[in-house]
Amino acid sequence: MIELAPRNTSALNTGALARISGQPIAIAATAFVIVVLGIGSITLWRAYTGMAPETDRVVVTRQLQARTAQASEQLVEKTKGLEATQQESIDQLQVVQDQLLTVRRLLAAQQTDTRKLSEQVGTLTESIDGLRQSFASAQATEPAAPPSSRKRSVRSRSHAVKPRASKSAKLKRGRSNG
Questions:
Q1: Which terminus of the chain faces fewer neighbouring Cβ atoms within 10 Å, N or C?
Q2: Residue 14 in contact with residue 21, Cβ under 8 Å?
Q3: pLDDT per residue over 23-82, tens digit each?
Q4: Sign of the dihedral through C-alpha 128, 132, 137, 142
């Protein structure tokens, strides 16, 4: 077999330990110097710029709180505006509903009146038809009368109207005198 590692490992380990044993102090000292330099540079940077990250965070937090408060106030105002608008819409809707009910009632009453009038017109039409038929049957049964009878009826009508006019004239004269 081939040996890969030397047989005298204890001699190598002792030499390596002797070399490393002096270096840990140097490594620790170097690390300490690096840490001290880092802290010093951070302190100098803060002192030079005049700003500390903590104060920046506080300022940013206050700005966020102010923005949040402003946004909340705006939301409250918009909500109140929407509530007012919604109430106005509800009121207008109620007015429209009341008007609609009134129009429906009026329409129903008008339809009832129209039906009554239609019935009355039908009754009057039947009465007129009955009168026409009776008049036609009366003319058919009577002998043909001379045209002078028509003149008499017109004259009798004019005489009938004149006394009424004279009564109304007397009433007017009486009122004007009294």
A1: N
A2: no
A3: 788 889 999 999 999 999 988 887 777 766 667 788 889 999 999 999 999 999 999 999
A4: positive
Q: Is-contact 47 41, C-beta < 8 A? A: no
Give me the DSSP letters along 39-92: HHHHHHHHHHH---HHHHHHHHHHHHHHHHHHHHHHHHHHHHHHHHHHHHHHHH
What would the 3-class secondary structure string for 13-50 be?
HHHHHHHHHHHHHHHHHHHHHHHHHHHHHHHHHHHHHC
Is the four-CA dihedral 135, 136, 142, 147 of positive or negative sign?
A: positive
Distance from CA of residue 178 to its chain's centroid?
70
Burial class for 46, CB neighbours closer than 10 Å (0-12, 13-18, 19+): middle
CB 6 within 8 A of CB 12: yes
